Amino acid sequence: MSMVAILEQALNGFIVSAFYALAALGLAIIFGVLRIVNFAHGELYMLGGYAYFLAVSALGLPPMLGILVATVALAAIGALVEWLLIRPVYDGRADRPEEYSIMITFALSIFLLNLANSLFGPWPRRPEPLLRGSVELGELIVTGDRLAAAGVALVLIALLLAGLRYTWAGRAVRAVSQNREAAAIFGISVTQVGMLAFALGAALAGTAGALMGPVFNVVPVMGVIPVIKAYVIVVLGGLGSIPGAIIGAIILGQVETFGTILIPDPSRALAYKDAYGLVLLVGILLLRPQGLFGTKERRA
Amino acid sequence: MHQLLKINGLAKRFGGLTALKSVDMNAGEGELLGLIGPNGSGKTTLLNIVSGYYKADAGRIAYQGRAILGDEPHQLARLGIGRSFQVTKIFKRLTVMENMLVAGLSDAKAARGEARDRAEGLLRDLKLDRLRDERASSISGGQGKLLEFARIMMLSPKIVLLDEPFGGVHPELKQFMHDQVRKWNASGTAIILISHDMGSIFDLCGRVVTLSNGDIICDGTPEKTRNDPAVLDAYLGDHHGSA
Amino acid sequence: MSMTMLRVTGLGLVLTVFLMLPFILGDYWIYTVTIGFYYAILAASWALLVGYVGRISFAQTAMAGLGGYVSALSVQHIGLPPVLGLVLGVMVAAMIGFGIGRMTLRLHGAYLGLTTIAFAEILRITATAEYNLTEGSRGLQVAPLLEGGTRVEYYFLFLAITVACLALMTWLLRSRVGLFFQSIREDEDGAASLGVNVTLWKTLAFAISSAFAGLAGGLQAHFVQLITPSMMSLQEMGLVLAMAVIGGFHNVVFAALGGVGLQVSLEALRELGQWRLVVFGLLTVIILRAVPNGIFGFVFDALAKRLVKKGRDE
Cβ–Cβ of C113/A102 closer than 8 Å? Predict the structure, then answer.
């Protein structure tokens, strides 16, 4: 492969990583604060895509506003889901909380996926992207929609990191992630932080969906494969670790982009592409379950 | 007295923390031995290694003359080493009788009817027989501790390791538990009792082993232990004194 | 009446209904219920693993597909009669299940769930990618189990097999193995301290559950005479989860009834189109939240309260 081609591949890998990172960070925050894996994350991502589609194509709003609509809508949905379905894990109403949280988020994902299918139909939609056409960076050529979306994603990630570091809410989120009981003793309402975390996680997933929708199509099943990549990333980085999620996203983006070169038969190589991440996931969970930066817990 | 349990040079580290330095300890058949020491001295670590839940970094353990270091917990249970847990591990969604039967039937050769009868007897001794068909989640904390005792006895163990069994137990129940411990011991079961409750230790144990910072600093009668300067230093010099 | 009598009466009634159905229903519905038996075995074997042993798994439908493909391909390429193909499918599924169970010993909860999702997807992707062998998404033609069999014949055969599977599972779960399984679910360390070989039983549980799933998959493949990778998808897994939860996933019979019930409802509510699945999804969420024993569990408990006298012998 020529140098230009390699760089283009790498750049594409980084762009894809930016999207993955946004979705994965949502998952990481939810796990950090609530200690649950949100199996409905892919469908929240998908709903973000549809929110953007409705805002831009149906209501005619400008694309940036569409992104905002998706973010806000999913934050609201996330808060509602936490209040209705997740809270029993913490106030003692669920008999077996761990099992319950896994199954109810999985059931929620079934519900949401089929709801989208029924409301919007299975046909793909292509709403207006942030930027049309292609952009030249020196000798590299990248499509504008991807680049713009990745740019927005990076800005949002930076905002998120800053928020976690410098705002009171962000510090509360970090406190509860590190030690729930201690945070409660210090007067932090862990219930409210829980709702905030889920809403934030959902908003991040929804925003990622809104950004990716115009690039890859908005369709009810659009969340199924990306969410598995998000799982791979957070497990690789360490469940609950924010920097881990970012590094994990970068690694996965590169592995997927260059991994296809490994299998000589081009059609099968493409078919197995999604499997690389899965093999990585299994490998990490079996060999080093805490990932790169996670804390070693005796049980998940 | 036959040495039932012989521990030599046992060592255990957790990352940078040394829990056990090099512990030598014996327990004879039918002995009732107390194991005390300030928090963090390594008592529970020692118990967890002997019962197979932790792997030691160095040392040997012989039980009835045979080396058991590295064996799995369920294997040790079948060999006759029973143990209780600081936070009881009763099976909450099973009934009291089912809790007993898990222990009774873990031996593949045991028949159900026989196991049930033995369980009945043990439950009666511990005044839990009325509760046999109740879910374990609905019995009181004290009854839960007794259930844990009863389950261990289903294994017909030769030695029982009790980890802080009297924590949070009211005085009447504690007396009852003391009587049970003495009864078992009288029938030939060796018992190693870890407890912060000095009253119980001095009441029950003929011999007391004191651990501090991963080392044994005293091994003798309760009287001797009470007056030993090293023991007093370990407890009083340490902010987490007890009893 | 006693608890045992209630159980026996209930089972008897249900069995009688199923025996009579082919004489009341038309061909189309007989076919539908026969497919329902596939889901019944799947849901029940999932309930065994998740409800009794407490090991969460999303690989059930992948194991079914594995059994189905192994059976179909061995009949096609080695010339095995379908019955032996089924046996081979069961054995391979059991072995892979054993392997996964062994590898995931130290994983629990969501980590375990994620790992099973990964294994399931790897299997599905492989089935799709190796299209030279499996025809990929186009689907593989499968030889019929009963040459020239009528729908009624398949119905009774599958009913018999389902009842046999449930009987086997129930026998296992009421034996000491069932106690060991549940003790592992409740507290692994506590179980080990009482002599339960936790490693062995966790591994065997996965193997046994996968074996039943492989059988179901093989039966389905040789009945419908077509197998596609979509049978192994997470959407299908979601459906099985819904069936077991709605039926009652702490009891293999209730889960099985959930399987048949939901499959029949799916067909009955055809005019609702995609909305059927929305309803089931919502129902699953509600049941998890409010009626954890499932519909059949709830009904049975209610009947037991009214009809069973609390006596010394239960």
Answer: yes
